[in-house]
Amino acid sequence: VGVPRCGASLHELNKALRIELNANANCVWQIQRNANQTIRLIFSYFKFAPSSSCKTESITIYDGPSTKSPVLGQVCNDTDAVPVLQSSSDSLTFLITTNSVAFTRNFFVFYYFFSPEKKVENCGGQLTGPNGTFTSPNYPKPYPEFTYCVWHIRTAKNSKINLRFQDFFLELDQNCQFDFAAVYDGLTTNTGLIGKVCGRAQPTFESSSNVMTVVLSTDYANSYRGFSAQYTSTPLPGPVEPNTFLTCSSDRMKIVLSKSYLASLGHNETHLQLNDPSCHPVVTGSVIFSFPLASCGTTKKDDGQSITYTNIISLSATGGIITRQKSIQIIAKCKMENNSTVEAIYITKNNIIQNTTSVGRYNVSISFYDSDSFSKPVLQSPYYVDLNQTLFAQVSLHSSDPNLLVFVDTCIASPQPDFGSLTYDLIRSGCNKDDTVVTYPPLEHYGRFKFNAFRFLQSFPSVYLQCDILICDSNNANSRCTEGCISRQKRAISSYMWKTNTIVGPIRLKRDLRSADHSESLAKADAEETPNLQQYSFYTLSFVVLISNIIIVVAVILKYHIKCQAGYGYQKIQSS
């Protein structure tokens, strides 16, 4: 294992690096070799300064020989997966930058060159039955070196997955830096890490939905028999209707949450707080927050045409050190215009929008589709896309009234689900503000447009869309929905029946799919390590006793050949 101080040029076929950095580091490692092969780079352990962010401290990986090459991914303090990245050629570069905080950062990374066309038998795949089994390659014989296998498990809708490793033996290490299995709550390996394990154990894991991903990664030494795993599925309880209500007046905001809905999220009224934690709800049959617009940490945003007041209810467990519950936020918005008020409330779990309720007369939703035929909606969330890929969005009005027409008035993008900071206009007052936006003519209950995927600068990983929707009477030939792009002055006298708001997201780049890890094992994995270490210590003690007995026998034999009794010593075997 090399210990480069700050950067290096690496040409070996494979190498492991233990890196230690202090404050204000800016170090570049370049991996390159004339091998006509691909590089796999694994950050199996990392520890940044506490409370650091991606803006101040990160590892940036570039797909090429320099930091001017395309960005392949980024690893930060809040990365929630084991970062495994793959180059498109025989060169790769990574840059580690640290902030000014006095703290010793530690990283363990290893890489190897490999040929993608060379497949390992019984390594990964799709598992779709209600239950099943799978094993590591060569099981029960030692698994191959430089192996990376991914199993995707998908069971019936409205079920969850229980995974049990019946037999498990990987190389033992306190931080699982060398050989490890990683389990994810979902179909991707970039986020949702449930646990990372190694050594000897019989770990079990449970998903929150009907999808789970299992990864096996091995290095170049110390192969053992691997694992045999079994999964089963069990039905999830029926969904509980959100039962969330928002009322906006000229000076107050009122949010009502049902206790049954909070319970379905795994929380109760004691777990709730607004932007200002000193503002408490009134708890009766429901949980009610009612407060003046200018209080309780409510943010105000004026775009010149409307004023939007936003507050966020955060749901978090209290009284412990760790949690395995997802981060949940309820975002409430009151958007005031000179002739209307739009009330919107929506739920996010780990920054992924779950459902939107536009409080008012009409129910409107927005979805992405895979083509301009708008026949097949994209169901995955986050929606992973390529940079500059054409995205097709459709706004749908859910109404039985055939005499209504939908018009997409304004759509903005933001890197945050509350749209409180940086925003970018795609459509404004019916006018396309981005060069790639194309709007389709209004079609009864549908408003459609397309645009090319982009990312925000400053390393924001996600893009969210928020659209203002106008609903008009289709019998009115002069309604706002038929006018298209108009100026702000003309817009003030345009006629429409109702205005509402809808939100979708996040959109993320495909290259981020494999750019994540939270380096330290979860408490579950830590608990499993304890018997592993005890068993390892038992083997070590047995080995020492065996060696001691052999030395004693040899000493007895030598005693007949030499007059002086031979002394012997031993050195304690260092544990990993």
UniProtKB/TrEMBL annotation:
Transmembrane segments annotated in the record for this chain: 536-558
Keyword Metal-binding: no
Keyword Metal-binding attributed: no
Keyword vocabulary terms for this entry: Disulfide bond, Glycoprotein, Membrane, Repeat, Signal, Transmembrane, Transmembrane helix
Start and end residues of each ZP domain: 247-488
Annotated SUPFAM superfamilies: Spermadhesin, CUB domain
Ranges for domain CUB: 6-114, 123-234
Name of the protein in its database record: CUZD1 protein
Species name: Pygoscelis papua
Gene that specifies this protein: Cuzd1
